[in-house]
Design goal:
With about 190 residues, the chain is mainly α. It is built from six helices and five strands; from the N terminus they run H-E-E-H-H-H-E-E-H-E-H.
């Protein structure tokens, strides 16, 4: 759902994938609650109102405000801007890695375009994020450290950059992330 931000045609265009279905979330509504499903004609015909095969309806179906905001948002989400938010994510990734290395804190990252995830262990190639990760307690402590330092990320050690950001804001985020790693390290040392 969040991969439309990776290229003008989303992850599928980036990697030449021709899916049976494409699903998009709030990015197509400019952040408003909306979703969309598209696919091959023969599959989409199953959900046509006259087919009687699959009921497809929704509270926000065709919401005019979401559609107008989404149209403006998608028009402005150019490949140039997609590249910029990817560069900002790369800067954040480098900052995280450098700070962790300076502290002797194991930190491994995965980044695709503007999406960054980090781990406090080496999950190895082809890892898939799950709830069974062995660093859950460290991730929890780091999340609290980020909150204390004025960052409000998801509690699962991931972030995404956006076109609403700026170079100055990215530098501020990196600074706050570095301080949160300092605080995490102090917390971990206090626990040992």
């Amino acid at each position: 759902m969040i991969s439309l931000r990776l290229a003008a045609g989303g992850y599928q265009a980036l990697h030449g994938i021709e899916p049976d279905f494409t699903m998009m979330g709030k990015i197509i509504g400019g952040g408003f609650p909306i979703g969309a499903v598209g696919g091959r004609r023969e599959l989409m015909q199953l959900a046509h109102p006259t087919s009687g095969r699959v009921l497809a309806s929704g509270t926000f179906s065709g919401n005019p405000l979401a559609m107008i905001a989404g149209g403006v948002g998608l028009r402005d989400l150019t490949q140039e801007k997609i590249n910029q938010i990817g560069r900002w994510a790369e800067q954040i990734e480098r900052g995280l890695k450098a700070k962790a290395a300076s502290l002797g804190l194991p930190l491994w990252t995965r980044r695709t375009g503007s999406l960054v995830a980090w781990y406090f262990y080496d999950p190895g190639p082809g890892c898939v994020y799950g709830h069974s990760r062995p660093d859950r307690e460290t991730v929890r402590r780091h999340h609290l450290a980020m909150l204390v330092n004025g960052l409000f990320p998801t509690p699962r050690a991931t972030l995404a950059t956006s076109t609403a950001m700026s170079d100055a804001l990215i530098e501020e985020i990196i600074g706050r992330l570095c301080q949160s790693l300092d605080d995490l390290m102090a917390d971990l040392v206090g626990v040992m």
